[in-house]
Amino acid sequence: MDIAPLAASFGKAFLFALAAVLPILNPPATAPVFVDLTRQLDGATRSGLARRIGINAVLMLSSAMLIGSYVLDFFGVSLPIVRISGGLIVATTAWGLLHAEHLSSDNKAQMAQSLTADHVRIQAFYPMTFPLTCGPGSIAAAITVGASLHEGNNLPVSLASFSGALTAVLLIGLL
Fold it and tell me: Cβ contacts of residue 115 below 8 Å, gap of 6+?
């Protein structure tokens, strides 16, 4: 078996997944929100929380990418519907952020106090990973990426494509 088509499939899938999911997750834009919500935590707890959020995001996006299209088939939902609804969710969220009222200092303090060191593990998934970091729009993008990576009966090329996409998701989780 020639390695060139596998490397090309890996590279194309890596770039495709990175270009599709990274702008929706947008780690540089979520970092100030994370810092603001965890202002009262010490550095070790904050970095542990960030690590856990990254791991949770990788697990969510990877599972959406690998099994999302099968779940859609089971429920009879077509991929174009997911693409349109994911785009609408991202647009609605962006519109809401443009017109959102800022949290008062009391609300920020209450949210920060709820993130004590004891509750970090519990709250790392909800609300910090889902929906603040990895929301419905990024899950819809991951499902779309996963559905487009199927290469028919060519198993080695499909495995190379999924490996490239999962590598991109790991890189996004590190960011």
Answer: 37, 38, 40, 41, 49, 123
| Percent composition of the chain: helix, strand, coil (DSSP 3-state, to 5) | 80, 0, 20
For 89-143, what is each residue's pLDDT tens digit?
A: 888 887 887 777 665 555 555 555 555 666 777 778 888 888 888 888 899 999 9
What would the mean pLDDT of 164-169 be, rounded to a whole number? 96
Angle at 20 between CA 166 and CA 49, to 5 degrees: 60
Q: What is the pLDDT of residue 99?
A: 79
Residue at token pair 């270009």 = 19
Residue 38 is classified by DSSP as T
| Distance between CA atoms of residues 148 and 125, nearest Å | 28
At 90, list the tokens: 């991202």
For residue 118, how many other CB atoms are within 10 A of its CB?
Answer: 9
**pTM of the shown model:** 0.82
Which contacts qualify for 124-131: CB closer than 8 Å, 24 or more apart? 124/49, 124/52, 124/53, 124/56, 125/56, 128/34, 128/37, 128/49, 128/53, 129/52, 129/53, 129/56, 129/57, 129/60, 130/56, 130/60
Are the C-beta atoms of 21 and 169 separated by less than 8 Å?
yes
* Region of residue 152 (left: phi > 0; alpha: psi -120 to 50; beta: else): left
